[in-house]
Amino acid sequence: MCRIEGSMNPGASDQREHAIVIGGSIAGLLAAGVLAKHYSKVTLIDADALSNINAARKGVPQGNHVHGVLRKGWQQMLSVFPNLEKKVSDAGAVWLDVGTEIKWHYFGVERATFESKGRTPFLGRPTLESLIFQELEELKNVECLSATFVEEYVGTADTVQGVKLRGGQECMADLVVDASGRGSRTPKWLEKLGGEAPEELSIPASVSYASCEFTQPKQKFDWRVLYISPQDAAGGAGVIFPTENGNWLVTLTGRNLAQPPRTHEAFIEFAKSLPSDAMVHALKGAEPLSEVRTYRFAKSLRRLYEKVEMPAGLVVVGDAVCSFNPVFGQGMTVCAMEATHLDNTLEASTGGDWQKSFQKEISRYVNVAWEMIEVEDLRYPDVHGLRSLKVKLMQAFTSAVCRKSEKDAYLSHLFDEIVHFETPPTALMRLKVLLRLCC
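Above: the chain's sequence. Below: its structure in token form.
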């Protein structure tokens, strides 16, 4: 159980004896891995029964659905856990060049193929999370408290000194990291301490997910991953994704659905409504191996902690700061970038005020992903919100580039680099891009 003692001055940000991480999902696991390099002891606390079993947890309801690891995110994960690449390979991950081995239908066209910068692993979210957890368990200065509930922070509006667990025990620390996800209670806990809760922004998504595991058919295709994006506001999307067990994980999504498909028959019927018949054709030779699992995502939610006077001894990361529409696959990558920024900050910091600046600094990673979501989700007429001139311009450039990328490998490659956080979205406005769009 978590020991009560911390440093002589718990909550003081220049002390590095004990750190607590709330939340054992990807953000929390990566944060704990970073903190283990800089603190004598790290305690990871999660309400779920953490283990290395490859099964979706209650705290990760989206775990049964397709999760892609973007190249930037994967490289950042490896900077925290260098041995993760071997573990992933040993687990059977499928390594692919997303430039040549993904068939992507977008804006009614099929994007041209190209050689990408490297291969990325394809495997189920539960397996990836369990492998990262194994990496964390191997660290001698990390203690994991499963099935343990945090009730509130201990401290004042100026300094967080630890947490109070269900049952009344107080666990003191020099730093508390909230990585508890979208349902984070930090806003309420800050107010309880006399502090300020952050302003919240949201963008409606109203996305329903339906996923099912299938056998891979004997028939060969000219792709390893199939991704079909909506062609219009009322359209659905779908992806076929190879997993570490040699099967396919197939996920279908739709906006504002009264009822997502819940049976195998309804699943196939929904696939027939996609703007390409490639998925239905592929599934003809595949057999379902699981029930159809569903999930709903109402809205992207962002908490503006960078504008709040945060107490010393506390930082917030991952979905607790911003949970993105999962259709875009950005969440794990943003978490990984925040984790490596935490590592770099702790490596360079000698003072006691790094936490407040850190909260502001990681907002730049959130900004990039949030602006991408604004561009895409504000295309839908049912989403109410101000379309700024910047959003309108980026919408026009994105759609033009995607349509042109059917025959232009350079534009297809550029768009891929933006998606993978390797190039800023503003690259769409380069003169070279404009000239190609005009040709």
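The chain is about 30% helix and 20% strand.
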